[in-house]
Design a protein that fits this description.
With about 190 residues, this protein is α+β, with helices and mostly antiparallel strands. The chain has helices spanning about 5-45, 110-130, 165-180, and strands at about 50-55, 65-70, 75-80, 80-85, 90-110, 130-150, 155-160.
């Protein structure tokens, strides 16, 4: 009777180990498949590949991860089953903009309340634990792609690049090197 819990634990551990081995095999196959796809794209001229959360400008949901494939003549955006192509001659400008947001939070000090209460009683606890204002500064960087749409109007595509700045700067450097579009002229 005492061996039954031990057998159950061994069985659960065995199932867990089999599950882990299966997941490792599936993950390695997926990585191999992705590497083969990237190599095929590189043979077709792919120069930069990056993934950023989408902010606006494409017909996909906000904050959805979007893969960017940069070729000498075009940039392709892929998110899920949606693929979008933007020809390079339509792109007029590419840059990184910074958004700084400053928030104020009220923070009460439990430690200050306890210390004040121990040293000066109830009044000390009230004063020591009173809410203080704390400022939090959040900086977000966005990759902005400006282009001429099919109606010959300026349009923008934005991505949050805070977690992958190096790839964003690589895209901008490539744009500056390959840009053949002299900009847009708009009569108002």
């Amino acid at each position: 009777m005492d061996i039954l819990p031990l057998l159950i634990i061994i069985g659960v551990l065995l199932v867990f180990v089999i599950f882990c081995i299966k997941m490792i095999r599936l993950t390695s196959q997926a990585k191999k498949r992705d590497t083969q796809q990237l190599n095929t794209l590189k043979e077709q001229g792919l120069t930069v590949h990056a993934t950023f959360p989408h902010v606006n400008g494409l017909p996909i949901a906000e904050n959805l991860l979007c893969e960017i494939f940069s070729f000498p003549n075009r940039i392709e955006f892929k998110s899920g089953t949606t693929s979008i192509t933007l020809m390079r001659e339509k792109i007029t400008y590419m840059c990184i903009k910074t958004d700084t947001e400053i928030q104020q939070q009220l923070v009460s000090s439990v430690g200050g309340a306890i210390a004040g209460g121990v040293m000066f009683g109830t009044l000390g606890a009230i004063i020591g634990g009173r809410a203080k204002t704390k400022k939090i500064k959040t900086v977000t960087k966005y990759l902005i792609i400006t282009y001429m749409n099919n109606q010959n109007e300026l349009a923008y595509i934005g991505f949050d690049v805070m977690n992958n700045l190096a790839s964003a700067y690589t895209l901008i450097g490539e744009f500056n090197k390959l840009n053949t579009n002299s900009g847009a002229h708009i009569d108002l």
